[in-house]
Backbone:
C-alpha cells in the first residue's frame, strides 16, 4: 500500500509541474501514435488469500513495468488503443504450497496483460489536459514453478486516468490504471485454498511519451 500511495503522490507532483507551465498555441494531434511507458506494477490483493491462521497468503510483489501501445484518434477527443503491459514480479512460497525441488522463499513471475479499449481526451489537442481510458483484455501469468505446467490466464479490465501535455507529434503522459481481474487457486499447488476464483486488484502507475506517426 505504501508503494501505491507513493506512486500516486509522484504522479500528482508531475501533473502539477505540467499544469504550471505556460501553454503555447495548441497543435493538432496525429491520428496514429505509438505510446511507450515505464512505471510501477502494484498488486493490492493476494493471488490466493489463505485464512486458516497458520499459512501465509500467496501474493505477488510490486515490480517495475513497461507498456507499449498503438493508438488511433477518430477525432481530437476520442480514440482507440491496443497495447501490452509487462511486469516481472515475485511470488512468495507460502507453507500452504506443495512444491518440489530445492526450498526457496519466492520465485519470479512474468505478468503480461494485453488490452484494447477507448481513450478520451476531453480538451482535445490542447497543450495540457486529462486523459481517460476504458478497456479490457487478458492477464497471463508465467510462473517459474515445475508444478505449473501451462500459462495461467484470466480476463482483466482496464480503467485509467491521467494527464497529457505537449504539442505536435510528441506528448508526455502520466497515468494510473486500475486492472481488476480474477485468479483461480486451482492453477497453483495449494492444499488449503478455496475452489472459487479470487478477485485481483492491480494498479499500474506509469510515465511515458506519445509519438505521432
Residues:
Amino acid at each position: 500500500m505504501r508503494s501505491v500511495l507513493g506512486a500516486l503522490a509522484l504522479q500528482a507532483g508531475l501533473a502539477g509541474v505540467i499544469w504550471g507551465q505556460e501553454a503555447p498555441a495548441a497543435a493538432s494531434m496525429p491520428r496514429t501514435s505509438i505510446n511507450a511507458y515505464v512505471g510501477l506494477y502494484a498488486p493490492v490483493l493476494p493471488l490466493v488469500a489463505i485464512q486458516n491462521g497458520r499459512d501465509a497468503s500467496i501474493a505477488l510483489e510490486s515490480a517495475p513495468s513497461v507498456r507499449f501501445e498503438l493508438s488511433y484518434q477518430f477525432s481530437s477527443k476520442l480514440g482507440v488503443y491496443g497495447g501490452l503491459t509487462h511486469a516481472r514480479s515475485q511470488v512468495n512460497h507460502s507453507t500452504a504450497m506443495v512444491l518440489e525441488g530445492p526450498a526457496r522463499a519466492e520465485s519470479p513471475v512474468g505478468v503480461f496483460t494485453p488490452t484494447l479499449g477507448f481513450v478520451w481526451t476531453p480538451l482535445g489537442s490542447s497543450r495540457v489536459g486529462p486523459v481517460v481510458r476504458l478497456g479490457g483484455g487478458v492477464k497471463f501469468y508465467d510462473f517459474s514453478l515445475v508444478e505449473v505446467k501451462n500459462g495461467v490466464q484470466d480476463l482483466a479490465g482496464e480503467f485509467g486516468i491521467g494527464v497529457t501535455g505537449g504539442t505536435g507529434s510528441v506528448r508526455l503522459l502520466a497515468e494510473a490504471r486500475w486492472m481488476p481481474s480474477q485468479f483461480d487457486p486451482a492453477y497453483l499447488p495449494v492444499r488449503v485454498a478455496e475452489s472459487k476464483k479470487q478477485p485481483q486488484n492491480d494498479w499500474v502507475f506509469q510515465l511515458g511519451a506519445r509519438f505521432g506517426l
In short: Strands lie at 32-43, 63-73, 78-92, 106-120, 128-143, 152-167, 170-183, 198-212. The helical segments are 2-20.
